[in-house]
Write a structure and sequence with these properties.
Distance between the termini: 18 Å
Helix content: 40-55%
Structural class: alpha/beta
Shape: globular
Radius of gyration: 20 Å
Number of strands: 5
Strand order of the largest sheet: 2-3-1-4-5
CATH class of the largest domain: Alpha Beta
CATH architecture of the largest domain: 3-Layer(aba) Sandwich
Number of domains: 2
Oligomer: single chain
Number of helices: 13
Length: 322
């Protein structure tokens, strides 16, 4: 690995403390943060996305009316990484959008472009029969991918079926072809070190999710979503408005249910998101875990801080942290 530029990936489920750890590393050492979060790219999605005040690359780079794809992210992330390395600093990629991480690290296949007619057909089918019905359709043609997608994850189900209907080739097969061809950062001239942080107890993660939901509501999440709704050009068909927090509050500002129900749906959806993220991470190769207790300290070394364990691992991996 000698001579390879290093970069760090910091992952974890929502509300795990990864952003705080990343900021500590950036403040104390020679790192710049690159957001790996599909909601943070959108301007105006601040409270519900827990948008940090600390500088990150790839934050506030799109209007919510403009979709942002995985391919867009990979292109922008590579440019940010090269820019950071050119200034002799260390890129620290942090976030919880695991599909972004996977595509950047392993490469993405040259899948068919979006087909508006196929997409419209699938969305009409979903409105009539529900996304779980389309998830069952996906299970029939691509059971491998369907097993990793929640039955209500409309964006991923829709894209996977669109790819299959447009090309006759499943997304799992496209990904295998890409993996065989290479093209991600793990196959480039980089030394990639991967960390993950998470509370050791699921109950603690759930408690953090509930606390954060309440803090978001107190900070004005309802008013933020109402402002987006009143723009008039945004709908739940857009990726930005399907982000966790915004979809649930959208129904409230439209008068479909009260705030108590919106809060319940927000917490439920965030728990489901965390579960999906952990499912991704459990099978993630070459990942160094930092498990924390209710005080946010590493469970195996409670006298230390997460940053102490992170630095110890990075130095053992010969990532140069001055």
């Amino acid at each position: 690995m000698a001579g390879k530029p290093g970069l760090v990936c910091l992952m974890g489920p929502t509300a795990s403390g990864k952003t705080d750890l990343a900021i500590e590393l950036a403040e104390a050492h020679n790192c710049e943060l690159v957001s790996v979060d599909s909601a943070l790219v959108y301007r105006g999605l601040d409270i519900g996305s827990a948008k940090p005040e600390y500088p990150h690359h790839l934050v506030d780079i799109r209007d919510p009316a403009e979709p942002y794809s995985v391919a867009d992210f990979c292109e922008d992330a590579r440019a940010a990484i090269l820019d950071i390395l050119a200034r002799r600093r260390i890129p620290l990629l942090v976030g919880g959008t695991m599909l972004y991480f996977k595509a950047l690290l392993e490469g993405i296949a040259d899948m068919p472009a979006a087909d508006p007619e196929v997409r419209q057909h699938l969305e009409s089918e979903a409105r009539a029969k529900g996304w779980p019905h389309l998830h069952r359709m996906l299970e029939e043609v691509d059971p491998e991918l369907a097993a990793s997608i929640h039955p209500n994850h409309s964006q991923r189900i829709g894209r996977a079926l669109e790819v299959y209907l447009s090309s006759g080739v499943t997304m799992s097969e496209w990904r295998r072809r890409q993996a065989a061809r290479g093209g991600g950062l793990l196959t480039d001239a980089y030394q990639v070190c991967q960390l993950a942080i998470c509370p050791a107890e699921r109950s603690e993660l759930h408690a953090r999710i509930a606390r954060r939901a309440d803090l978001m509501i107190e900070a004005g999440l309802v008013e933020e979503v109402r402002g987006l709704y009143q723009r008039g050009d945004l709908t739940l068909d857009l990726p930005a408005m399907r982000a966790v927090g915004y979809r649930q509050m959208w129904g409230h500002v439209r008068g479909e249910y009260d705030l108590a129900r919106a809060r319940e749906l927000l917490i439920q959806a965030t728990r489901q998101l965390a579960k999906r993220q952990l499912t991704w991470l459990r099978g993630w190769p070459d990942l160094h875990w930092i498990y924390t207790d209710s005080a946010g300290r590493p469970v195996d070394t409670p006298q230390q801080r997460p940053i102490d364990q992170a630095l110890k691992y990075l130095k053992s991996a010969t990532i140069d942290i001055p």
